[in-house]
């Protein structure tokens, strides 16, 4: 990646506002810029952190907000927050509505409540002609069901880990699929097969920082600069030139986020 021109990559999913970055956020941001990560999409997870995401995006050029309420935090969501979300969009139009979706992996998350907030936020995205950033853990079919009922502009299936058939269903609906650190682990054989086989035109890169670190980070904190290594890992897996992979995935991200 060192031979690539600077500012050629997009991290389509990065929680730079997370407390894990409080001690050295400026340095994390500068490392990303040095690695060629020109743009970071910063998704909110609750109404309470809308302000933190806004502060990050005002402080750091190239950090762009996505407003949304995450399915893992349903205990924090209130119906009135949906009106707050609509007002927030009028104040600062985001690159997407997100992070929204469904999670059938974490125990104890009431599905009906998750689905209510997911559906209502899809409607907001539809009404404002915005793409969505989707959290789809163990819930791809349920996610797709609502996407077919509530037409949205498209967006990104974040941290995609479904089947080839589910991938093709997302692509048919106009979505890109987010690939990050998870596919870089040798044990992730099914995910590596998807990263190899799916059309490159349907793949975008992400870190989900500070989570989902790539293999070379191990159990450490992930950060947006690692998009450069993720691009190199994808290029190696597919037998392609890394600069070509960077150009294509960046173009895909721009398309998905309307940039």
* Major sheet details: 8 strands, parallel
**Helix share of residues?**
40-55%
Taking all Cα atoms into account, the compactness measure Rg is 17 Å
**Count, helices:** 9
Q: How many angstroms separate the termini?
A: 23 Å
What is the fold named in CATH at topology level? TIM Barrel
Q: Structural class given helices, strands, pairing?
A: alpha/beta
Structure keywords:
disordered N terminus; TIM Barrel; 259 residues; alpha/beta
Task: Describe the fold and architecture.
The protein is α/β, with parallel strands linked by helices. It has one domain: TIM Barrel. Helices cover 41% and strands 14% of the residues. Strands 1-2-3-4-5-6-7-8 form an eight-stranded parallel sheet, with helices on both faces. Helix 1 links the parallel strand 1 and strand 2. Helix 3 (80-91) packs parallel to helix 4 and helix 8 packs across helix 9. It is globular.
């Amino acid at each position: 990646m060192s031979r690539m021109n600077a500012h050629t990559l997009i991290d389509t999913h990065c929680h730079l506002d997370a407390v894990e970055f409080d001690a050295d956020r400026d340095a994390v941001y500068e490392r990303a810029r040095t690695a060629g990560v020109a743009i970071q999409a910063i998704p909110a997870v609750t109404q309470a952190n809308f302000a933190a995401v806004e502060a990050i995006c005002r402080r750091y050029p190239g950090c762009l907000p996505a407003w949304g309420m995450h399915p893992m935090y349903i205990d924090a969501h209130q119906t009135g927050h949906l009106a707050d979300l609509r007002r927030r969009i009028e104040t600062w139009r985001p690159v997407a509505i997100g992070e929204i979706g469904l999670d059938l992996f974490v125990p104890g998350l009431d599905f009906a409540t998750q689905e209510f907030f997911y559906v209502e936020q899809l409607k907001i995205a539809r009404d404002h002609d915005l793409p969505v950033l989707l959290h789809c853990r163990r819930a791809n079919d349920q996610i797709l069901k609502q996407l077919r009922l509530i037409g949205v502009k498209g967006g990104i299936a974040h941290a995609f880990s479904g089947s080839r058939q589910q991938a093709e269903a997302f692509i048919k609906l106009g979505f890109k699929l987010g690939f990050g650190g998870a596919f870089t682990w040798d044990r992730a054989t099914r995910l590596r097969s998807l990263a190899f086989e799916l059309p490159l035109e349907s793949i975008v890169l992400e870190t989900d920082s500070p989570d989902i670190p790539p293999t070379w980070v191990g159990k450490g904190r992930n950060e947006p600069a690692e998009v450069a290594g993720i691009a190199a890992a994808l290029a190696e897996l597919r037998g392609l030139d890394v600069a070509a992979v960077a150009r294509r995935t960046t173009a895909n991200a721009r398309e998905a986020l309307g940039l």
